[in-house]
């Protein structure tokens, strides 16, 4: 057989639910459109193209002319449309009904709008578990692409990975192409001839081999520095020229053509895995550092080439452990999915259920559920978008159930930790409380604007903080993969790294030294003198005709002094207010104690004049990124005119109030940056017991949502 090789070029173009419209447009102008313009004249070249559902819907609305051009190339046989789950979820985190439903939903959309029914799919983030095989096959898919790392983790040698393989589960078959890591790192970062030389060697050693490149289309223009490299400096044209010049032995083919024309290399059973970098990111920070140190220490060892495939990182599902906030989103999503399944079984209107299902599917978009070289969970607008759709789905479910206009209190293991949580709900809001974790409120949904005020994020150690402390670096003048770049988007980030001992939630009950200050508390340097922040509270639910109450009590201590703390959270029918009454008992006489209640508010960003603090008289006190140290006041207001919400916190006795921004130093594809996560507001008192050793305060929070319809429409256009 004469030396020849088949090359499958598989591009994955994606923008997540909730990303800014300007980001979509910039990626279109920098990547999607110019790639198509360069590709069109090369008649001898074929590619497989996956465009995620969120991006495809945006293109259909904003740039239908792009889809017209793609459609012509599909009809010419030059582009194969690759399907997948509609809103790009990690399939392993979904129940089977949603896995199959998402894939079939997108296949139907592609058939209606592009006239194609895909037979293959893109596996989001290449996160794989064997149990997916049967579900993917049941959804009508015959093949997909994973990384060669998956196969190497099963003990296969790189020389064996020269075609696709068949995987099996429960008698269902799926064909899987191993995407080459070598090609992922040379395309487009190395000169085109290096890729050609690599493929020429394979053509001689394995005539007829099928090699697969499967990676992000954003590498071609959107990733940092790549637009200049790929287009202005002509890398993509040089690559396509090289492919064309060598087409006698180097054939670019689609995945579908490979299935038709080449036999599988055999059968494989692949371990639960993802691409190599993802396995590292899913590890705890300390374990990441250890793995990184070991890998660097061994990389020049002659044995490393044989050992590297067996040195594995972590497991994707452990992002739900690494980031408590991921588990909160996941559990919220599962709660909606389960209720939707019950509504379907009850025979509710199919059109109403379809609208709810679309919100659920949008709320499953993977990007904010994890974190690596991309912002992921650290990007507030992506977290907010997930909750926006899940809250909207929840509200629509209660409408069809006929329970929206009632006030209710229920208990269940809503976050899958083996403990009971509490859900208080009325037509305006839903409050989720965790008695086992300090009786804290961990989610607070405002239905009027579909916003979770507690979509917050705890500041925690990350392995890449070592790079922040070491300073920026370059790639020696060459364009670099985002996995190799160390770029600071602003100065002084090494001075801004801080860590929180506790989650950034609300109803967090602190005892500080009497001398504690705004500075010491905001930096996490004030010792915690009580045991009420994270330890369990006893909980009771009280239900009245027009109100519900969660009563939480803990017999704990502060400074070793036994203290009983009771807090009662009350929600009334039809009200946008939440009332919390605190009662502290068994306080020592004539011994002043410093008590504070922490509240956090997410989605109210800093740096804009239309997002501001006000005092009880309506006087503005500055933007929400300001640090406030107020004394002898009875409240504080937070306003966000763009989001359309006012939050008025009032106390029935004068207090001090600390307020400060919670900001993270985090990593994105563009570099390291400071990200505003939430606003912490902490009323605090130096308390002295009455004659019976008691002290009490009531905190009322009123929420007002304005322009809710306009905000929802604006966000819908963005996604």
* Tertiary shape: elongated
Mean pLDDT: 93
Using the 3D structure, state the CATH architecture of the largest domain: Alpha-Beta Barrel
**Poorly predicted runs of 5 or more residues:** 708-719
Which helices and strands, and how do they pair?
Elements: E1 5-13, H1 21-39, E2 47-51, H2 53-62, H3 64-75, E3 79-82, H4 96-114, E4 120-122, H5 132-138, E5 143-147, H6 148-153, E6 165-169, E7 172-179, H7 181-186, H8 192-205, E8 209-216, H9 226-232, H10 235-245, E9 250-253, H11 255-261, H12 276-281, H13 285-298, H14 304-307, H15 319-322, H16 324-345, H17 350-362, H18 380-401, E10 408-412, E11 421-425, E12 429-434, E13 440-446, E14 451-452, H19 465-470, E15 508-512, H20 518-522, E16 538-543, E17 547-558, E18 561-572, E19 577-585, E20 593-602, E21 611-614, E22 620-623, E23 628-640, E24 645-668, E25 671-687, E26 695-705, H21 708-718
Protein name: 4-alpha-glucanotransferase
GO biological process, one term: alpha-glucan biosynthetic process
Domain Alpha-amylase/4-alpha-glucanotransferase C-terminal: 413-699
């Amino acid at each position: 057989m004469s030396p020849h090789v088949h090359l499958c070029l598989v591009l994955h173009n994606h923008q997540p639910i909730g990303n800014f419209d300007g980001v979509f447009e910039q990626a279109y102008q920098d990547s999607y459109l110019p790639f198509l313009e360069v590709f069109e004249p090369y008649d001898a070249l074929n590619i497989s193209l996956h465009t995620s559902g969120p991006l495809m819907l945006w293109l259909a609305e904003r740039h239908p002319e792009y889809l017209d051009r793609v459609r012509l190339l599909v009809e010419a046989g030059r582009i194969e449309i690759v399907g997948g789950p509609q809103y790009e979820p990690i399939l392993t985190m979904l129940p089977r009904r949603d896995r199959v439903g998402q894939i079939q939903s997108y296949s139907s959309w592609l058939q209606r709008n592009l006239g194609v029914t895909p037979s293959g799919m893109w596996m989001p983030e290449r996160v794989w578990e064997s149990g997916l095989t049967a579900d993917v096959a049941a959804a009508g898919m015959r093949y997909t692409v994973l990384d060669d790392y998956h196969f190497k983790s099963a003990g296969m040698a790189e020389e064996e990975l020269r075609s696709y393989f068949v995987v099996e589960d429960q008698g269902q078959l799926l064909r899987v192409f191993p995407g080459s890591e070598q090609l992922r790192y040379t395309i487009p970062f190395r000169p085109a001839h290096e890729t050609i030389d690599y493929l020429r060697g394979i053509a001689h050693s394995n005539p007829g081999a099928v090699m697969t490149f499967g990676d992000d289309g954003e590498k071609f223009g959107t990733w940092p520095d790549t637009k200049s490299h790929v287009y202005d400096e002509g890398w993509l044209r040089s690559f396509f020229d090289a492919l064309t010049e060598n087409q006698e032995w180097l054939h670019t083919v689609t995945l579908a053509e490979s299935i038709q024309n080449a036999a599988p290399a055999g059968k494989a059973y692949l371990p639960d895995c993802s691409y190599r970098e993802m396995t590292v990111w899913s590890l705890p920070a300390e374990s990441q550092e250890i793995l990184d140190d070991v890998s660097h220490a061994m990389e020049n060892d002659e044995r490393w080439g044989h050992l590297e495939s067996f040195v594995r990182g972590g497991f994707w599902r452990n992002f739900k452990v690494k980031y408590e906030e991921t588990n909160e989103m996941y559990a919220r999503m599962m709660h909606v999915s389960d209720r939707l399944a019950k509504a379907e079984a009850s025979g509710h209107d199919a059109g109403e259920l379809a609208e709810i299902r679309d919100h659920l599917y949008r709320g499953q978009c993977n990007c904010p559920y994890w974190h690596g070289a991309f912002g992921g969970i650290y990007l507030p607008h992506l977290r907010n978008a997930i909750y926006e759709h899940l809250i909207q789905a929840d509200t629509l479910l209660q409408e069809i159930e006929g329970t929206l206009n009632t006030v209710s209190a229920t208990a269940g293991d809503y976050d899958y930790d083996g403990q009971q949580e509490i859900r208080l709900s009325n037509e305006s809001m839903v409050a989720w409380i965790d008695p086992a974790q300090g009786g804290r409120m961990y989610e607070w949904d405002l239905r009027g604007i579909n916003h979770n005020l507690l979509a917050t994020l705890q500041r925690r150690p990350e392995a890449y903080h070592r790079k922040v402390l070491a300073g920026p670096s370059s790639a020696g003048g060459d364009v670099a993969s985002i996995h190799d770049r160390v770029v600071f988007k602003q100065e002084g980030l090494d001075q801004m790294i801080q860590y929180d001992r506790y989650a950034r939630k609300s109803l967090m009950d602190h005892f500080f030294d009497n001398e504690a200050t705004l500075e010491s508390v905001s930096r996490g340097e004030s010792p915690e003198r009580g045991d009420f922040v994270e330890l369990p509270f006893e909980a009771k639910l009280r239900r009245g005709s027009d109100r519900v109450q969660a009563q939480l009590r803990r017999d704990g201590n502060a400074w070793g002094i036994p203290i009983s703390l009771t807090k009662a959270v009350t929600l009334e029918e039809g009200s946008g207010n939440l009332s919390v009454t605190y009662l502290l008992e068994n306080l020592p006489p004539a011994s002043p104690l410093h008590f504070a209640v922490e509240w956090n508010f997410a989605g109210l960003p800093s740096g804009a004049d239309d997002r501001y603090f006000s005092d009880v008289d309506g006087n503005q006190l500055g933007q929400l990124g300001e640090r406030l140290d107020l004394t002898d006041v009875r409240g504080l207001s937070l306003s966000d005119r763009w989001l359309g919400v006012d939050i008025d916190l009032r106390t029935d006795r004068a207090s001090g109030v600390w307020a400060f921004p919670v900001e993270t130093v985090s990593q994105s594809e563009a570099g390291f940056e400071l990200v505003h996560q939430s606003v912490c507001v902490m009323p605090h008192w130096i308390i002295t017991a009455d004659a019976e050793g008691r002290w009490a305060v009531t905190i009322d929070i009123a929420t007002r949502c304005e322009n809710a319809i306009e905000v929802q429409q604006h966000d819908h256009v963005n996604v």
